[in-house]
Amino acid sequence: MTAVHALNQHTFASSIHQDGVVLVDFWAEWCRPCRAFAPVFEGAAAEHPEIMFASVDTEAEPALASAAKITSVPTLMAFRDGVLVYSRPGALAPAGLHELIESIKALDMNEVRTQLASG
C-alpha cells in the first residue's frame, strides 16, 4: 500500500472530510520545488501512519486545483476533522513539515470551530 494517496475530483471531498489529520500536496510534474518536496512528504508519510498523506497532480486535475484556489505549486493544505487548518504555497524542509504536523495535532479543534463560527 502506498503511503501517499493520489486524489482526484471524485475522491478529494470524501478524503478531506474524514476524522483526523489529512495533508494534501498540490504539485505538478514540471515544478522543480515540487519534485524536491516529494521525498520529504513521502518520508513524513512513512513516519506518521496515523495521518492521511495525499497528493493532487494539478496538471491532471485542473478543475480540482482551481476549486481549491491553487495559484502556486507546491501548495500544502492540512485538514483536521474535515476543517481546513493550513494552506500555504512553498516546499517545506523536513524539520518544518515535522513542526507543522505537531502543531496541527496539538490544535484544540473546539476552539478552532468556535473561531470559525464567529467569523
TrEMBL record:
Keywords of the record, alphabetical order, are: Disulfide bond, Electron transport, Redox-active center, Transport
Residues the record annotates as the site (Deprotonates C-terminal active site Cys) are D25
Q: Where would you find the membrane-spanning parts of this chain? A: none
- Annotated site residues (Contributes to redox potential value) in this chain: R32, P33
Q: Which PROSITE patterns does this entry report, sorted A to Z?
A: THIOREDOXIN_2 (PS51352)
Respond yes or no to whether keyword Transport is given for this record. yes
Q: Which CDD domains match?
A: TRX_family
Q: Where's the Thioredoxin domain?
A: 1-106
Sorted alphabetically, the Gene Ontology cellular component annotations on this record are: cytosol
Keyword Transport assigned: yes
Q: List the disulfide bonds.
A: C31-C34
Q: Which domain of life is it from?
A: Bacteria
One Pfam family of this chain = Thioredoxin
The active site consists of C31 (nucleophile), C34 (nucleophile)
This entry's Gene Ontology molecular function terms read:
protein-disulfide reductase activity
**Family note:** Belongs to the thioredoxin family.
What is this protein called in UniProt?
A: Thioredoxin
Q: Which organism is it from?
A: Nesterenkonia sedimenti
